[in-house]
Amino acid sequence: MTVSSASPSLPAGADWAPAGLEARLVEAALTALETTSVDRLSMRSVASSVGVSHQAPYTHFRSRTRFLAAVAGSGLAGVVTEAEVAVERAGDDPIARLLALGDHYASFIERRPHLFDLAFGPVVAMRDHRVLQEAAIAYWSLLRGVVLACQPPGTPDGEVQNRCEIAASTVYGIARMGAHHKIPRVVPATPRELVNSALRTLHDGWHVIPGQAPRTPTPGPDHQADESRGLP
């Protein structure tokens, strides 16, 4: 594997130069994670791909853990940027933005499972590198803003935070089950369709008044199109 010398964008919290060796090592590791799980990621191979000693990641990042945290944060920062674009493309409707973010999150898990496992798994902690801290905070801030816009007036901040975690964990569970082919064959919907349905159900539940029966789930765009054609 040979990595291009092109400079990656510098994520928030990075303590290295955009075109420096540290940036090249991080880029090489991210490239490797496209096809290799973190437990099989070789520091020697990463270093070799940029033509330096196998000790380079340790020398420049002080430890394997800190290097991996920098890699996770750099990758996650790019994912956050993609998610922000997806949300903005959804327009101003709060639920459309929620569904766009959920779809992007599920897509992230499907497309880049090894990066996701590194960023959110047990190998590194958010405190292990500032880049990872900054990226995680940015992702949560985006999620919180999207979920907050879907809440009825007067929802306490603590409850908004709870609902953010519930939404994220729901999408995570469905997407991971789908990625590992663990969803029973009798389930006709795709993982992405299940994510969409789950978020609509959560959204409708957020607007239920205590003691009042839940309203009919919000119809999706496909159902609305069917209605316009006179279909059930």
TrEMBL record:
Entry keyword Iron-sulfur: no
Regions of compositional bias (Basic and acidic residues) in chain numbering: 223-232
Residues in the DNA-binding region annotation: 42-61
Transmembrane segment boundaries: none
Ranges where the HTH tetR-type domain occurs: 19-79
GO molecular-function terms, A-Z: DNA-binding transcription factor activity; transcription cis-regulatory region binding
Alphabetical list of PROSITE patterns matching this protein: HTH_TETR_2
Entry annotated with the keyword Membrane: no
SUPFAM superfamilies in alphabetical order: Homeodomain-like, Tetracyclin repressor-like, C-terminal domain
Pfam families listed in its UniProt record: TetR_C_33 (PF13305)
Region Disordered, annotated ranges: 206-232
Alphabetical list of InterPro entries matching this protein: Homeodomain-like_sf (IPR009057), HTH-type_TetR-like_transc_reg (IPR050109), HTH_TetR (IPR001647), MT1864/Rv1816-like_C (IPR025996), Tet_transcr_reg_TetR-rel_C_sf (IPR036271)
Keyword annotations: DNA-binding, Transcription, Transcription regulation
Protein name from the UniProt record: HTH tetR-type domain-containing protein
Source species: Knoellia sinensis KCTC 19936
